[in-house]
Every structure is written in structure tokens, then in C-alpha cells.
Amino acid sequence: MKLNQLPELQRREFLRRASALSIAGTAAPWALSLAGIGEAAAATAPTDYKALVCLFMYGGNDYGNTLVPYDTSSYNAYATIRQTLATPRDTLAATALPAGTDGRQMALAPQLGKLKSLWDAGRLAVQLNVGTLVQPTTLAQYKALSVPLPPKLFSHNDQQSVWQASSPEGATSGWGGRMGDLFLGGNGTSTFTCINVSGNAVFMAGKQAVQYQVATSGAVPINGVTKSLYGSAACSTALRSLITADRTHWMEAELNRVVKRSIDAQSTLSTALAAVPALTTTFDTSASLSSQLLMVAKLIAARQALGATRQVYFVSLGGFDLHDLLVAQHPALLTQVNDALASFYAATVELGVADKVTTFTASDFGRTLTSNGDGSDHGWGSHHFVLGGAVKGGRFYGTLPSVSVNGPDDVGQGRLLPTTAVDQLAATLATWMGVSATDLPTVLPQITNYTARDLGYF
């Protein structure tokens, strides 16, 4: 069968799966950077620029020590439940947030002082108790199993996938990538619509859009083509011919077509990045997350050279599965988040695009409010941040949960039953990006289960 006789769905699936090999490009000269592009979507091309950046905290971030109860009554309840895990109250004064009308008050973790400044500036918002749901669910419905629940609750791999794709492990597209599908036609080079700086994530895979993977140093080259192969220019030339020449077999032809496009994309991206002036904003390049967000900032600076009007980015930080050593290790992780997000926001201000870039945090799930002695266990709902110049910050969105075990928001051990769905958060972000109400169900199939589809961040 020839390439032009291959069924379109099968051709796209081959292209999408082949792109997964691109992550190996820096490790071996023979590895192929197979970042592809899908067909242009029939969407109206926007004339402005917007970017959405997902920071995924792998392992399940502990919500109890990220946003800490601060008023006396709530803190005492928190400290009684958390025992040895509780953040000392006297360390929270500098990051305390204004009390609500019910008198309850929260504080950011002491390590999040820079985010407190962004809150004060009206650029950071907190989404309370958000998590994976199929439809709005009450505690009574959860206990009675009378409504559908997210599959495989409390499982790392599955809940990472449900957060990112609305489906458990094995999903082939995520809502970031499906959003990208709608914007392919509006970008001059659709390859650069969905860019992942931390490897591979289903969040970034669309039905047409393929995530383009880059390293913190820039485009991932095919080393045997961009450099002399084993000291031989002739060998390098032979490799280029081998992996880009026209072929008669449809699989070989498609593979070589994608590889050639990858080589061209790498050249385009490298040239664009080389022309970007150095940022004056300081990033801690010894830290993984800051390095990833520095690259995102550089890519955004190169947006015009790349012909981009809508982009979705993905960065990540691991290490949050703290069944043990939570007090010892969680503060350092939050420090990375604090420093990286603050630097990134400052960079968007420097680039003049602060109101055109929105960053949000996500994680597998929250954790238990109860202590297991040295850490917390897998939970469900959690608190997350939304950051950007367009964000109506300095406020909470959603419902502040009760600080209790076996209380009105708890399915056991202080595991929060989400009162806001990931789909609602995603719909709000997608709407800001320009996804129409008609197209929302394409990006988020379960959004039809919710009346509130814009949570008011912008």
C-alpha cells in the first residue's frame, strides 16, 4: 500500500506514535527527533498572541502544607490532625492571606513568599479544592456510589492521566493537545503549537496536534545529522540521505517525511532562539523547573519568528509523592515552584506579554490531611494556582473546605471530595485562549455535565 492509500486515521496515529521517539534525540546520534505536525484545523486565525503554561507537580502535591489554615480555630484543628507534619504557625505571618467573610484565614507555605507578592499584586489566584470528577458529586452520592466517579481513584498513573486527558492511563490525547488541534491552522508553523519542555505528557497530545519536545538547552537535534558522525562528514551525509530520502513503502515514506520535517523544525527553532536577546530576568538554572520555564520564556520571545499566535506549554517537577520525609523534602519542592514561577512571570513582564501568558499548576491529586507518621498518603482534591497578567488575582475561587476528618468535604483521612472539577478549570482556561463554547465539548467531553464553565479568573 502506498502512502496516499493509507487511511487517514491510521496515518495520523502512526505519525503521533512515532513522535514519542523524539525525547531520545540527545542521548544517541542515531535517535530520531520525530516531532510532527497535524493537519491545520479549520479555525479562525487569531491576530493576537496567547500562551497557556501547565506546571505539573508529579506525585501528588500535599495541599495541607501548601495552603495552610491560619486563623486560630482552623490552625488548631489543622495542627491536631497533622500532628508532626504541621507547619509552625509563627512561620506563616509573612504569607498570611486576607480572611474571608466567615472569619477563616489561610496562609501560603513560608517558602511561597514570592507568590504572596504576586497575590498582593493581583496576579496570582488560588483555585480551592479542585480535582478529577465526572460530574458534580456530593459526599452522599460518593458514599452511595450513585454517580459515576473518576476511574482508579488514588492511582498515580491513572489520576495523572485523568487530570491531563479526562481518561485513565492509556489515553491518547489530552485537553491541552485537543486545544492545540483548534489552533493549528492559525499558527504559521503548526509544529510549534504544543511544546513540551519536560519529556512526554498525554496532556500535550492532540488528535491532530503532536507535542514538540525540546530540552532546556533548546531544540533536540539528531546528533548524527547536525554533527559529524563518528568523525566522518561522509557518514553524516549518508545518514541524512538514509533517513530523509523518498521511499516506496508507506511506513518508510511516512517515517522519512516526519524525520525530514523534524530536521527542518530543529533548524528553524535553533535559528529563532539564537536571535532572541538575552533576558535580564534572573532564573536559577541549577534548578530543573526554573531551567524549563526559562526555555519557555525564550520560546515565547521567539514567537514571531516561529509564526505562533496560540501556544500550549508543559513543564513539570517530580518528587511530590511524600509518604515519608514530607517535612524534610516538601519545603524544598515548594521553594523551586516559588522561585521558578516568580522568575517566569517577571520574564513575561520583561517581554511585554504578561497579560498574554497564563500559567497554572496541576498534580496527580491532593494528599490526606492526616499524618501517617512521616508523610501523607494519596488523596483527591487539592488547591492550585493560576498566574498571569490577565488573571483577576488576589482572591480565592471555589469553596474553602472544612478543616476536619470525616467532615462535610472528606471521603476519609482528610481526602477532599473536589467541589470544583478539573474540567471547569480547563474550560475557563480554554475560553480565555479563544476556544468557543461550541468547541468546548471537543476539548473537554465531560464539560456538558457542568453548568458553570467559566470560573471567572479573567
From TrEMBL:
Lineage: Bacteria, Pseudomonadati, Pseudomonadota, Betaproteobacteria, Burkholderiales
InterPro entries (alphabetical): DUF1501 (IPR010869), TAT_signal (IPR006311)
Name of one Pfam family that matches: DUF1501
Superkingdom of this protein's organism: Bacteria
Protein name in UniProt: DUF1501 domain-containing protein
PANTHER family per the UniProt record, alphabetical: BLL7424 PROTEIN, DUF1501 DOMAIN-CONTAINING PROTEIN
